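Inputs:
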Amino acid sequence: MKRLIGVFMAVCFSIALFAENGHNLWLRNKSNNPVNIVSKKSSATLAIAKEELQQGWLGEANSTVTLLVKQDKTIKGDGFKLTTNNIQANTDLGILNGVYELLRRQQTGEAIQDAVINPSYELRLLNHWDNLDGSIERGYAGLSIFWRKGDDAFKVTETDKQLWKEYARANASIGINGSVLNNVNASPDMLKKETLERVKAIAEILRPYGIKTYLSIKFSSPAMIGGLKTSDPLDPEVITWWKNKVKEIYSIIPDFGGFLVKANSEGQPGPQDFGRTHADGANMLADAFKPFGGIVMWRAFVYSPSTEDRAKQAYNEFMPLDGQFRDNVIIQVKNGPVDFQPREPFSPLFGAMKKTSVMPELQITQEYLGHSTHLVFLSTMWEEFLKSETYQEGSGSTVARCTDGSIFPQKHTAIAGVSNIGLDTNWCGHHFAQSNWYAFGRLAWNDQLTSKQIADEWIKLTFNQTSSDNSKQPLFSPDWIVNFLNPVEEIMLESREAAVNYMMPLGLHHIFAGDHHYGPGPWYAPKGLRSDWTPPYYHKADSDGLGFDRSPTGSNAVSQYHEPLSSQLADPKTCPEIYLLWFHHLSWDYKMQNGKTLWDEICYRYDTGVQQVRDYQKEWDKAEPYVDSQRFGEVQSKLREQCKNAQIWKDACLLYFQQFSKRPIPYDIERPVNVLDELIKKDMKRH
Amino acid sequence: MKRLIGVFMAVCFSIALFAENGHNLWLRNKSNNPVNIVSKKSSATLAIAKEELQQGWLGEANSTVTLLVKQDKTIKGDGFKLTTNNIQANTDLGILNGVYELLRRQQTGEAIQDAVINPSYELRLLNHWDNLDGSIERGYAGLSIFWRKGDDAFKVTETDKQLWKEYARANASIGINGSVLNNVNASPDMLKKETLERVKAIAEILRPYGIKTYLSIKFSSPAMIGGLKTSDPLDPEVITWWKNKVKEIYSIIPDFGGFLVKANSEGQPGPQDFGRTHADGANMLADAFKPFGGIVMWRAFVYSPSTEDRAKQAYNEFMPLDGQFRDNVIIQVKNGPVDFQPREPFSPLFGAMKKTSVMPELQITQEYLGHSTHLVFLSTMWEEFLKSETYQEGSGSTVARCTDGSIFPQKHTAIAGVSNIGLDTNWCGHHFAQSNWYAFGRLAWNDQLTSKQIADEWIKLTFNQTSSDNSKQPLFSPDWIVNFLNPVEEIMLESREAAVNYMMPLGLHHIFAGDHHYGPGPWYAPKGLRSDWTPPYYHKADSDGLGFDRSPTGSNAVSQYHEPLSSQLADPKTCPEIYLLWFHHLSWDYKMQNGKTLWDEICYRYDTGVQQVRDYQKEWDKAEPYVDSQRFGEVQSKLREQCKNAQIWKDACLLYFQQFSKRPIPYDIERPVNVLDELIKKDMKRH
């Protein structure tokens, strides 16, 4: 048994850099070479654009920059035309977007080439699952920045306004142009007068930054707060109530964006309560918005405890409605067919609904990916999703192209991300969780970006060391690039795969402990709980093997995908191994492509995940000389916890599945350190 | 970052062997070739000897074995003369000892050569720290087998008697010939009539197995239960009281062994309370025992919160008394000068007290070595201690030879082990903790045995697979030897060094959390607590370095050792590195013999400890086909916990010491997964 492998370490230790608390996000640059700005027009938005240029210009000193609002057909929406010293756009917001692009390129050292730069999606929204009492569903970074309980719940303070302004600026800097201010599990009180007054105050801060406000609504509001006997969407009184409510909102917030609706989903009321369809409900609301240019985002996250595979239900329910929605309705579909798992195949609705505006809903908050404790860069997951080939209109019909208007003539294109923002000083709980907010904005603007580019930008903006001293330029020295940028980028780019490895490799999904969706709970199946809320429903471990059979011999969910993908997924030999157990129930001895048995491969995957996190710890510790002490220490502590968690995941899942596989964990793998019975007992005590 | 190193594992899994619960200890053999026994004499002890032979004979079927009680000057005490088919001894107990030796050799396959085999120590005792309420101080294997609270506290049941008999047989089988039945922190009630009646019942069961009973007493008993005004050992009434009490005991238990006394130690009363010396106290009791042949074992475990180094105090207090004790007093000295730490140098009293009977006190229960959770084979620690060179009478004056009568003409030679036995089915809590009971007995019998031989015997006796089937011989197949015996033996022999590595390498000591002596607590120093009960007293970490300076520039504890050892220990360059920080406070940059700095070496040692336990997990898992399922699973679970604990030890100590060293943990070492503040908070919440 070998020990004491020593290497003499000559690395300099404990260089105490200035402390940073992370509140400035990726907007830490304070350099300001003098710059002359020429702009004929003035507006609140343009004033911000000028201020940003003056505070952040890193080009040649005393350059002249022209901001020109002028119609140009090559420029779409709030896109812009960029040259070294000129920004042209159709709108003031286009100018602001161009300014942020220009400054980012200066700060990251990216070349500025003459180009028209248009957004991939018209609407780029954050969804805040914030409740009126200030709590946030699946929020792991403190309480809501918008809502609070208590006597001053509706008082708008200077602190509120300052924070909302910082929030708006951060969003604007990455191209986000809309915010849904409250939880999709909405309170009817959201539509009450005093609440709307606060929405108005928020909207006023967000408006100059080009960010529209939206609200989630409860479908039964007419009965609950309107005094009506029903909320039936075809009832004339209900229709009138909503028309008036929308009108009232626009009288308060003239540029209001629209509604987001979770209906007939997980216990929420909806049109089906009255024998109506999702189309009936969505269209009724859309009609109320029509005069004001507002939109309705109607979520397709629906499933019920039937005998039908949960993964198939949204498709089954919405496909028949394709073509029946108003043109200001957008169907908002989660990336995968189940629920924001560490890895899912794309929802088969993407590309399949050809006569309906369909928008992806991504989850920035890490509900199923380690909350604000695990370092998981989600960009690679979203990139994998956006670049997934649907084959709906032949090769090249990626999810991105099916949703961004490249293929289908959608009236509206949009994308939403469920926010990870709260009152924590660093906004997101984990310093690296900021990168997910950043990545969502960047991908929403340009769905062809690579995660590598996004990570590269974000690291340079977030961790460059010269922004607080007096030099005018961030300096990316070869030393910094080799010893900080490259290893940290490698960690980020690999981190989601690591999480998949130590949580749910090979297509396993939803084997979380009940409720909290943080730790493992493959055993979790309390008596009487609906089976589709229990992990055994998803992993189907038995003495024969593991996995959910969604092939034609099983639930045939593969049939919801377009050929040739459908056939490819249907056969375990052609199904990508990353989705293997999503689509197939396979023998423990099933031979993987690398020659290992399924059981052994699972063991190696889990162990690999643990080793990956250990590697991140080492790399981060080595990076200490390049990071300010506060952020270094906070990330270091989180990585320690993540490593412990990864070990618990590995142990829990392997020991649980081993009860069925009755095979040894390969002996070259580090053994479990946790005891299954104790993990289960601890988990069950929580419930 | 490398992943997925796979080796195809062809090892057979899940061979379910019959389950064993460990209750049969190393006495699992049930084979019984027919044997003829010739013995002229009969006694209860000889009856047991015959029964054991008849039930366990593995020699040639129908052999004749002669048991002969006949005086022989070459045979000492309860030793014996052994040939293949004959056992001769001076006493019946000698015959029984010979029978167990013969059977063990048959079972382990050790050759039986004609030889006189004498014990190293006359008295080979277990000390039970059992309280009258059934609890056991530092017991980790359930409640007392002797005492209990409740209505039937003094009722002697058949179950009691059966268990005591099994206990007696197990002890006899390894040569233990005495048991102190209660805690050294003794209750005065121990000497009350009803308690003594229960002692009598126990003694009757133990007697045929050659095991004498002893009791711990409270020195203030005359005042506490005798109605006297004082317990002054020179007070005539006190002297009379003890004489009468001893007489009373012998009237109940005619072969009573004597008293064990903890006096003026950790708050216990003693002669110093009355201005008398330890000699005054011990001699007074010894005089009371003289007529009955009983002895007094007087503990030298004394220290007080003075400015003097705790490690020096026992020597300072007892050395001046050398020669003042009666010849039926034995001074019982813990192996190390502090308190049963994972590693200590030997107490300087050994060999130094030349005119006094001195006996070593070892601790079988793992108070400071992971309780009944960690697999730590203590034999190597005791072997290291017994073979320590004192130089008191020139080279070869090992602790063993200084205490077993080889060098000094002690009236009595003795050795004691603090028992790890409780009501747990497997007696010791951890199946491998049985090996420590076994090893203590074997070393007490023969202080020249190697740990390797003891481990070899114990594994063969405890895990051979044929003892429960119908074959007549345990079979040690090459497969079993290579894949079970050798790796398990390697684990055992290395295990104490592993514990030292992950707990307190390089001479660190007593950095446990307060009270429980299980987990790490290098930080533990509550305000107002006497400093010699806090870890910082022992590790003395500061920005300069680490360790307790006991060199001539410090407390000069080295002066208590005999030359040339004293000078050797005084110089860090010649001090064995295993004791380095016990004797020296050294700079974090101190250069170790391997060229590493002290700080780096500490890091590597802690990490090595963790890796060693991980290796044990692997080896044990591989051994699954060779072990019955119950013991396999129970040991597997304990190893998991041990591994987690080792990681906590490493993280806690490295992160705590790093606050002073301000140096990085070498980057090729796996990073901590625990956060120091949280470990401290968790520890302090307990207090």
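Confidence is low (pLDDT under 50) at residues 1-17 of chain A. Flag for discussion at group meeting.
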